[in-house]
Prior knowledge:
Blueprint: H1 3-20, E1 30-31, H2 36-41, E2 46-47, E3 51-56, H3 61-75, E4 81-86, H4 87-93, H5 98-103, E5 111-116, H6 119-130, E6 137-143, H7 151-164, E7 167-173, E8 184-190, E9 206-214, E10 220-227, E11 232-234, H8 251-263
Parallel strand pairs: 3-7, 3-8, 4-5, 4-6, 6-7
Antiparallel strand pairs: 1-2, 8-9, 9-10, 10-11
Helix pairs in contact: 6-7
Amino acid sequence: MSTARTSTLATLRGSIERIEAPCDAHGLNKVALGHAAADSVLHGGLAVAAVHEVFAEGHQSAAATGFIAGLAGRVSPRRPLVWVRQDFSEIESGALSMSGLCELGLDPRLLVTVRAPDIDAALRTAADALACDALGAVVLEVWGQARQLDLVASRKLTLAAQASGVTALLLRMAAEPRPSTAETRWIVRAAHSTPASPWTAWGAPVFDTQLVRNRHGPVGRWIMEWKCDECLFSEPAAYPQPVAATPAHRPHQAAAYAGQRRAS
């Protein structure tokens, strides 16, 4: 074996050992999600320059897409975002809606979408995009149990993210989790969204999120509401509809009525 090849293998082994070795979670650069309980478990928020995985069943693809768009908005609020999609993803779940992303608070002008004919091309494109430090995040969306997304591929993506400082977000639809070097792994489902007002049927996006892998701490499960105006996650409000102030001329009756409403 040549000296150059031996040196390259030693360098790669050292990089892999650094990825897999336990390290101080507080030393990582984090971006707060906004949800107090989730941020506490994550020791301050989502780590940037790392790989994060989001899994969902096929019929939950819209919820998972909205959730990962929120994560991308948190880690890359004013920097370009590259979204790599396998062709099959668009066949199954439809094209990304620019107006929908705009309603979520993201700027569609900062989004570059790439359609890959197969998983191999999608992986190569995502790795190339992660090498560009001008980006804020790269989303790799893959449908189904792709054998190419193994531990080796995960390590390559993690090394690329660490080298450039760009965050990798893997969106996996209709797939089962496999061993990887991901910093976190989430399973996402849609949750009930209460109408924001009596005159509209729509409310803020709400997600049932389960953190099933956290390299530096415990896991957990939370209901997370996405605040489109503030572009952050939060705990759903107990009373999402605005409450009128107590009239000055009958404060006792109003307080008693409010107590009855809470008890009902």
